[in-house]
């Protein structure tokens, strides 16, 4: 490891330099430990340079002490592989043809050249048969991390995405006899190299080589469908055979060798060797070629089969046939196609470029002998850190993402340009990389805004935008050794040749290429398009630029704009983690966030959609003539022009992403397609070798599918006709018939509800045509707006759901819970341009989870289907009730009752200053919001003759605060009596006003109905159909308790209870209400989590307030990007689905024993307070981390003396001066989670959350948005139920809603015919549940007539099972933990506490539920143990009217245990 570098002067001058220095040193130590556990050394062998010689140099045959134990196996395996490949060529007599790749139904690989098409079409007549000789020479050369000096970037499986290390070896093909003419045109080179790859794969998979080579699979190279690579898996017994190489195996050996672990895999990458001799012409096949644009020229330095000028980015090397002339530009450049050819020329040179940089840094040698010594430098360490960072985010090994080589060449550029110094440590170099990648304007978009070129016609505007992007776009060239970047460009032979070619083309053809004055500018121009901004464009070839010193290869050509934007945002977030901020947790956490936390594709975004590839328009459709009015015939097509350049697969992928980005605009922050490298990193890859691995497809956590060369499987067969092929997504499914492109969206909640998309002015004909092309003629219409503008526009109106389309259900709250109208816009665009043939709509995954919290939106919406309307109705009633209480308690002086006597209409001596909400339904957080009850002043919802006589739910809790007065009593007992008297007087005053309605005037007194129940603690009454529970907050009581010098335990308990209920309860409501108002989907997530908690029978053991705080943590703990143009990668969720998954992830992954959860949405907690929280947390937890509250959640109200922050009503003004002094010594401790949940409950909840998260994630990855597989996360399975000790079955008459059952819940969206016979009615589980709660228990329903006044006495709260469970917990808490589902309490589960069944000494005082211990060896003070039979008998007898059955699953009988122990001891005696 490199030596620790000195702290920077800026760090030492920082005001918090000590804490920052400590965090930096901790980060350095943590990364050093990671590097020591990740590094892998395997020195490559050296192969013979002569193809005629089959011997290899035995350099490094013995294992060095720092190498992997199995490294000699790698070298031996490669020697054998080299010999077999060289022997398979047949001394140059082998002939190759596309028939080598033929299988039943098509071809193994996607051949697509013009010569292949002629070959296929001419087979019937034996014409145009395409054959060519195999190469005479092949050379194996290690490349990538395997070839770098010291194996820079090579890591073991644990730091490799849990994948077996794959070692890259290039198979360098000699061009002599193999390539000639113009094989660089029209895909001919790629078809030749791929046919050769299949031929070699067949040779290696022959039976005689299987024991040596193992299995052979075909795979795409870095996700590029143009290139085929071979993935070789060594035989499973390679280690055993190595150990026994001198021994002969017995023929009849009964014991077969066990399968050993696969230590490594070899990937063969096919490339080209450079020529040896200088030649004037490039082969002889061009003499009879009918291709134009001949580039034959005399060259003295460039000894290669492709002319040097053909590597210019403005050249067109791939041209479609005549069938494409109507669709594609004949003279369009193909920079990506050309760069893909250049990659095969630079495998070895790129490895040498990296190795030479390493040599210059370490002072070593590039010879093989130098590999004998371990080399460690900051370059090695930084590359490993970058690799781990990228793997954790799914940014490595995808079809348009980083590779280890691209990360290495970026480091080469930074070292050679002195952006990273030789003495910098690995973390400093890592930081420099993040700064470079995040700040460079790779796409030229940073300076563009929505106002750019406003008022300019669309065509001209596109040109201006393109010019500005090219001007601002960053492009870099890796300097040569001893030169800077500009000197390298000046001395580059390719750049000089380009300038010469520009001058000659201008003189010969008269064309003006002056716009591309330099080669670097030409790269910028041809790797840039205007498709990612304001105009409709059918070519999406934007890519960043980093060139090698010869300026012939762009290392970043594969990277798409979506990847660049996402990776830059991740790099910016990494800088934030490294530098820290004042609100992050003490102790840093930067290392965990950078290198340990996994945030791959499936957990990064808000919504996921699947585009079926079988419905995407084929090449024949794109290029053929279309009917008039069809979108495909319009010259303003939105995708498809870049097929020749990018390839059909990549063109579709980029087209979907860019067209969706253009249509959705600011409604989304990011659109990304699924790439390789985004599988489940926790799942191990195919580590164990099996007998049939050679005939099965391989798919590791990178999701890179490898197809076996053996076997008769017809999956993944490509048809011969290129024009009718179905495009393939970057991540292939095992089933070829079910290939889908997965698109992920990160939604912007602030703009997702925008319903109007305005087009250009009417006079802009080209712009209007492009706008109509994008949206379609039916949607884009000419409209006049209030500002007088007449423009083309699209208006997204609300559409009711169609009962016949289960994949298109619209919910009442989908604009808040499913990301506004983003889904509707995406469905329209994909249907119009990419999936026109499919009848199934593309929908968000897991969207039907919303049916648990909202009703279905229909033409005539039911009053019970919209949860938001129900919540707003409650809040409206609260506002009117608050106004009524404040207005009618305003006191006036009435001298007739006494001098200075104050009275009010309600008869209260003091006026009510404030009415504060405390109930969850007043902050949008109630799963089933209350519905107005007809007997409590509400309107009857429906035409029913019976109405429930109870309210199925808790009363709405509010508190009242009176004006300040000195007339409050000074005794605690008297204070309690005064509060009770206030409540009684309030009830009497309301009743008196009801009796005197004529005198009440406009007061809303008629809205009060039903009984009013006054208790010493609260008043319950009915108002506007809702049941309200009013409590009194007396600030004088809090002041009195605080002033006690020697308070008793009872006084302390009372003070703590009052502060938690009145002060912290009010502050918690304000905090959560603010979060739910700012983030519309947060309240929906809370409600869905409440359903999940209850479904797993965790009701009341996890406080509802704790759920709200955890959800608030998810929505407010995001990356700040206010000072950057980059979007936040850790943004608040915008859909219920993503928010719920993040909650499950937080509950299951948070280190509850080792770290507190600080929830501070509005940044009220200072850095000093955070350090206090951590220090106090560590003191409470203790060294074994087992003490204190298991769930340690801290909110801004969780400190002692919180009542001092509520104003002068609690603390006197003279005491406020000491507040600053007291603030430095605050004691922070959890209040909401101080008692619940217990440790056993938290452990169970975390395990259930992990299981539910994995299940839902697998549902998203499998697809099927309308399937109900996700409902398994909301149900208890048989294994979960058997983990309890006993189950108590509740009588069904006490169950109101069976649909919320934990074992058999109602999860379907049901369509039923209306009773009137007019259409169908669609109802969600939420709507059915809330209807059942409104109807109430059947036995307690009362008759109701409109014109007949009957008895209206109504129970304000009916929860018999909840009261029962509370009683059980209070009486038997020391014996067991009780679980139940509050929404459907059909089962009460009992879990015995292990500590209650430990033998104890006998005492007559506590002899209840005890029995003697039956054992042969009594110990002192262990005579009795808990008797479960007595416990269950008493529980069953006391609950005989409610419980119908008791099922015992774990019978704690000590005699059984004693017998088992006795048997075991007897066996031990016999063995002795």
Describe the structure.
This protein has 1472 residues and is α+β, with helices and mostly antiparallel strands. Helices cover 35% and strands 11% of the residues. The chain contains 41 helices and 37 strands. The strands form 13 sheets. The chain has a 6-stranded mixed sheet with strand order 5-6-9-8-7-14, sandwiched between helices. A 5-stranded mixed sheet has the order 21-23-26-25-24, sandwiched between helices. Helix 30 (1049-1078) packs across helix 32, helix 31 packs across helix 32 (1104-1116) and helix 33 packs across helix 36 (1239-1262). The longest helix has 30 residues, at 1049-1078. The chain is globular, with a radius of gyration of 37 Å. The two termini are 54 Å apart. The N terminus and C terminus are likely disordered.
Record keyword descriptors for this entry.
disordered N terminus, 5-stranded mixed β-sheet, 1472 residues, 37 strands, alpha+beta, 35% helix, disordered C terminus, 6-stranded mixed β-sheet, 41 helices, globular
How many helices? Answer: 41
User: How much helical structure, as a percent, in the residues?
Assistant: 25-40%
Shape: globular
State the major sheet: 6 strands, mixed
Strand order, main sheet: write it out.
5-6-9-8-7-14
Content of β-strand: 5-15%
Q: Give the beta-strand count.
A: 37
Structural class: alpha+beta
What is the distance, rounded to the nearest whole angstrom, between the alpha carbons of the first and last residues? 54 Å
Radius of gyration: 37 Å
Overall average residue pLDDT? 81
Weakly predicted, low-confidence segments? 1-5, 9-15, 49-60, 244-259, 276-300, 322-330, 366-373, 625-636, 684-690, 1206-1221, 1456-1472
């Amino acid at each position: 490891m490199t030596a620790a570098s000195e702290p920077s002067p800026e760090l030492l001058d920082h005001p918090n330099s000590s804490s920052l220095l400590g965090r930096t040193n901790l980060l350095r130590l943590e990364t050093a430990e990671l590097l020591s556990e990740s590094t892998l050394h395997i020195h490559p062998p050296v192969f013979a340079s002569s193809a005629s010689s089959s011997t290899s140099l035995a350099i490094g045959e013995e294992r060095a002490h720092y190498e992997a134990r199995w490294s000699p196996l790698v070298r031996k395996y490669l020697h054998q592989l080299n010999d077999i490949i060289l022997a398979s060529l047949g001394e140059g007599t082998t002939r190759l043809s596309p028939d080598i790749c033929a299988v039943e139904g098509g071809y193994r690989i996607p051949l697509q050249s013009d010569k292949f098409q002629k070959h296929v079409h001419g087979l019937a007549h034996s014409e145009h048969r395409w054959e060519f000789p195999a190469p005479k020479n092949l050379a194996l050369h290690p490349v990538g991390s395997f070839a770098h000096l010291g194996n820079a970037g090579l890591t073991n499986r644990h730091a490799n995405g849990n994948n077996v290390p794959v070692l890259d070896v290039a198979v360098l093909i000699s061009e002599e006899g193999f390539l000639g003419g113009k094989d660089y045109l029209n895909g001919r080179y790629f078809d030749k190299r791929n046919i050769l790859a299949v031929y070699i794969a067949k040779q290696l998979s022959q039976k005689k080589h299987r024991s040596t080579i193992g299995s052979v699979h075909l795979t795409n190279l870095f996700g590029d469908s143009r290139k085929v690579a071979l993935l070789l898996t060594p035989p499973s017994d390679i280690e055993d055979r190595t150990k026994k190489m001198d021994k002969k195996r017995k023929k009849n050996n009964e014991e077969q060798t066990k399968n050993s672990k696969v230590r490594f895999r070899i990937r063969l990458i096919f490339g080209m060797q450079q020529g040896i001799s200088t030649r004037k012409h490039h082969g002889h096949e061009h003499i009879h070629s009918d291709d134009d644009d001949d580039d034959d020229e005399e060259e003295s330095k460039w000894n290669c089969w492709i002319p040097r000028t053909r590597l210019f980015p403005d050249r067109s090397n791939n041209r479609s046939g005549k069938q494409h002339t109507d669709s594609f530009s004949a003279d369009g450049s193909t920079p990506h196609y050309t760069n893909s050819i250049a990659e095969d020329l630079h495998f070895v040179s790129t490895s040498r470029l990296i190795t030479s940089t390493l040599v210059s840094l370490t002072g070593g040698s590039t010879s093989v002998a130098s590999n004998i010594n371990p080399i460690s430098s900051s370059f090695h360490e930084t590359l490993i850190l970058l690799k781990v960072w990228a793997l954790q985010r799914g940014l490595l090994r995808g079809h348009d993402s980083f590779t280890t080589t691209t990360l290495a060449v970026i480091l080469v550029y930074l070292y050679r340009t002195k952006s990273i110094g030789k003495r910098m440590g690995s973390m400093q170099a890592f930081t420099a990389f993040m700064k470079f990648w995040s700040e460079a304007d790779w796409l030229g978009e940073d300076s563009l805004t929505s106002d750019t070129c406003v008022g300019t016609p669309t065509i001209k505007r596109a040109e201006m935008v393109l010019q500005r992007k090219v001007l601002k776009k960053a492009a870099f060239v890796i300097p040569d050794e001893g030169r800077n970047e500009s000197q390298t460009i000046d001395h580059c032979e390719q750049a000089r040749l380009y300038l010469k070619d520009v001058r000659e083309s201008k003189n010969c053809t008269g064309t003006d290429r002056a716009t591309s004055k330099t080669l670097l500018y030409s790269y910028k121009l041809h790797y840039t398009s205007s498709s990612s901004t304001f105009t409709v464009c059918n070519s999406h070839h934007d890519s960043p630029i980093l060139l090698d010193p010869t300026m012939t290869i762009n290392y970043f050509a594969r990277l798409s704009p979506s990847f660049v934007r996402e990776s830059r945002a991740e790099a910016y977030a990494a800088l934030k983690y490294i530098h820290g901020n004042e609100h992050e947790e003490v102790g840093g956490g930067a290392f965990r966030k950078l290198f340990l936390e996994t945030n791959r594709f499936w957990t990064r975004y808000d919504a996921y959609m699947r585009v079926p590839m079988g419905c995407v328009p084929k090449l024949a459709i794109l290029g053929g003539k279309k009917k008039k009015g069809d979108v495909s015939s319009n010259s303003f097509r939105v995708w498809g022009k870049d097929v020749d350049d990018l390839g059909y697969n990549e063109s579709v992928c980029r087209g979907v992403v860019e067209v969706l980005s253009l249509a959705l605009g600011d409604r989304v922050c990011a659109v990304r397609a699924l790439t390789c490298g985004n599988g489940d990193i926790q799942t191990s890859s195919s580590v164990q070798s099996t007998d049939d691995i050679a005939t099965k497809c391989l798919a590791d956590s990178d999701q890179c599918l490898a197809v076996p060369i053996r076997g008769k499987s017809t999956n993944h067969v490509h048809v011969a006709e290129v024009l009718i092929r179905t495009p393939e997504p970057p991540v292939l499914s095992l089933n070829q018939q079910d290939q889908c492109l997965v698109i992920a969206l990160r939604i912007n909640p602030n703009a997702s509800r925008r319903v109007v998309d305005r087009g250009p002015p009417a006079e802009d004909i080209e712009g209007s045509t492009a706008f109509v092309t994008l949206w379609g003629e039916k949607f884009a219409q000419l409209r006049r707006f209030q500002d007088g503008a007449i423009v083309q526009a699209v208006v997204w109106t609300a559409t009711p759901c169609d009962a016949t389309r289960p994949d298109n259900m619209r919910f009442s709250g989908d604009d808040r819970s499913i990301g506004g109208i983003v889904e509707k816009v995406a469905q329209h665009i994909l249907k119009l341009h990419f999936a026109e043939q499919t009848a199934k709509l593309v929908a968000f995954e897991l969207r039907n989870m919303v049916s648990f919290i909202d009703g279905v939106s229909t033409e005539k919406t039911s009053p019970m289907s919209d949860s938001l309307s129900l919540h707003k109705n409650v809040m409206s009633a609260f506002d009117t009730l608050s106004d009524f209480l404040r207005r009618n308690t305003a006191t006036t002086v009435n001298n007739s009752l006494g001098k200075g006597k104050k009275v009010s209409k309600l008869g209260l001596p003091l006026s009510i200053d404030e009415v504060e909400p405390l109930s969850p339904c007043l902050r949008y957080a109630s799963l089933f919001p209350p519905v107005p009850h007809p007997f409590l002043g509400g309107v009857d919802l429906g035409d029913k003759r019976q109405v429930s006589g109870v309210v199925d739910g808790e009363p709405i809790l509010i508190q009242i605060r009176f004006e300040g007065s000195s007339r409050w009593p000074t005794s605690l007992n008297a204070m309690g009596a005064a509060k009770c008297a206030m409540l009684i007087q309030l009830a009497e005053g309301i009743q008196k006003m009801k009796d005197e309605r004529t005198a009440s005037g406009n007061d809303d007194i008629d809205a009060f109905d039903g009984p009013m129940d006054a208790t010493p603690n609260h008043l319950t009454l009915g108002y506007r159909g809702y049941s309200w529970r009013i409590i009194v907050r007396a600030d004088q009581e809090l002041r009195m308790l605080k002033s006690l010098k020697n308070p008793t335990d009872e006084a302390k308990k009372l003070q703590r209870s009052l502060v938690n209920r009145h002060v912290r309860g009010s502050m918690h409501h304000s905090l959560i209400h603010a979060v739910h108002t700012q983030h519309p989907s947060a309240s929906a997530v809370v409600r869905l989590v409440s359903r999940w908690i209850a479904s797993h029978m965790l009701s009341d053991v996890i406080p509802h307030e704790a759920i709200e705080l955890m959800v608030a943590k998810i929505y407010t703990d995001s990356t700040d990007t206010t000072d950057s143009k980059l979007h936040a990668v850790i943004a608040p969720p915008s859909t219920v689905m993503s928010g719920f998954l993040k909650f499950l992830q937080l509950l299951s992954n948070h280190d509850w024993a080792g770290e507190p959860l600080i929830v501070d949405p509005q940044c009220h907690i200072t850095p000093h307070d955070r350090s206090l929280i951590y220090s106090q947390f560590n003191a409470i937890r203790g060294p074994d981390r087992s003490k204190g509250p298991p769930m340690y959640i801290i909110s801004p109200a969780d400190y002692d003396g919180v009542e001092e922050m509520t104003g002068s009503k609690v603390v006197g003004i003279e005491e406020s001066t000491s507040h600053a002094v007291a603030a430095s010594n605050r004691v922070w401790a959890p209040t909401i989670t101080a008692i619940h949940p217990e440790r056993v409950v938290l452990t169970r909840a975390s395990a259930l959350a992990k299981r539910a998260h994995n299940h839902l994630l697998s549902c998203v990855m499998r697809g099927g948005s309308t399937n109900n597989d996700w409902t398994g996360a909301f149900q208890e399975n048989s294994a979960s139920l058997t983990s309890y000790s006993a189950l108590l079955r509740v009588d069904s008459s006490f169950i109101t809603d069976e649909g919320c059952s934990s074992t058999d819940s109602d999860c379907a969206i049901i369509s039923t015919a209306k009773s009137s016979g007019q259409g169908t009615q669609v109802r969600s589980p939420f709507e059915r549940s809330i209807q059942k709660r409104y109807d109430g228990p059947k036995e307690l329903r009362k008759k109701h007539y409109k014109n007949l006044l009957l008895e209206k006495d109504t129970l304000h709260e009916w929860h018999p099972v909840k009261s029962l469970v509370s009683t059980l917990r209070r009486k038997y808490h020391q014996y067991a933990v009780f679980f139940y589902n509050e929404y459907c309490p059909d089962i009460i589960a009992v879990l015995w506490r292990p500590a209650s069944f430990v033998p104890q000494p006998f005492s007559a005082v506590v002899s209840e539920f005890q029995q003697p211990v039956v054992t042969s060896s009594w110990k002192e003070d262990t005579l009795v143990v808990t008797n479960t039979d007595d416990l269950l008998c008493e529980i069953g007898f006391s609950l005989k009217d409610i419980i119908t059955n008791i099922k015992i699953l774990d019978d704690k009988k000590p005699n059984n245990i004693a017998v088992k122990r006795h048997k075991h001891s007897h066996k031990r005696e016999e063995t002795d």
